[in-house]
Amino acid sequence: MQSYAREHVRGLAAVLSALSLALVFGAVGGYVPDGLLPRLDPLVEMIPHINVVISATAIGTILRGVRAIRRRDIKTHRQSMLASAALFALFLLLYLYRISLTGPTEFGGPDIVYQFIYLPMLAIHILFAIIAVPLVYYALLLATTHSLSELPGTGHARIGRVAATLWLVSFALGICVWLMIHILF
Predict the structure, then answer these.
(1) What is the DSSP string of 78-128?
(2) What is the greatest pairwise CA distance in the chain?
(3) DSSP 179
(4) End-to-end CA distance of the chain
(5) Cα–Cα distance between 179 and 43 in angstroms, integer?
(6) Which residue among 100, 111, 116, 144 is buried most deeply as judged by most CB within 10 Å?
């Protein structure tokens, strides 16, 4: 299996990305059948707050991974980036569960803030997250299918830098969106 994955990193990243994004768009679009998921109301209400903690933690693990690789600490870099991927997966599972049950959260602030601050921030957050998904999969697949000595000959470092940057900005903007929805308005 690893040799197949090694030879088909781009294709696997594309398939995983398409599946992940289809799940997100399906949940956001309301295509999850009613009754499919158990409704745990206390959890549903807490998910935005749990996810903001997950996002802040993921920012920390991504920054730790970037710092580690700059210091050539491969072990810490690998642990940090795998932790970041696990945090993102947990974030996504919780987000999909909640959005499937409740739909998107309405913005309750003034229209001018909605049009000129909230919507552009949300759009960039979503766009960067969508772009980051295949890049993160690609970097992770390269890292898990190639030896340490082979990685410099791949696009892992180049793609990883772009993926980490998009990931960081998306997580940070997600926290800003949470602040605007749940704290400010």
Answers:
(1) HHHHHHHHHHHHHHHHHHHHHHHHH-SPPP-S-HHHIIIIIHHHHHHHHHH
(2) 55
(3) I
(4) 50
(5) 19
(6) 100
Question: Is the separation of the CB atoms in 129 and 67 below 8 Å?
Answer: no
Global pTM value: 0.93
Question: In angstroms, rounded to a whole number, what is the distance separating the alpha carbons of residues 185 and 182?
Answer: 6
Closest CA to 167 of 10, 27, 61: 61
Q: How many residues does the chain have?
A: 185
How far, CA to CA in Å, does 29 sit from each of 24, 36, 121? 8, 15, 20
The predicted-structure confidence for 143-169, as pLDDT tens digits, reads as follows: 999 999 999 999 999 999 999 999 999
Half-sphere exposure of 94 (CA within 13 A, CB side): 21
**Tokens linked to 172:** 């940070």
The confidence band for 3, taking pLDDT boundaries of 50, 70 and 90, is confident
Provide the 3-class DSSP secondary structure of residue 55.
helix
Rounded Cα gap, residues 155 and 142, in angstroms? 8
pLDDT tens across 94-115, in order?
A: 999 999 999 999 999 999 999 9
- C-beta of residue 83 within 8 angstroms of C-beta of residue 138: no
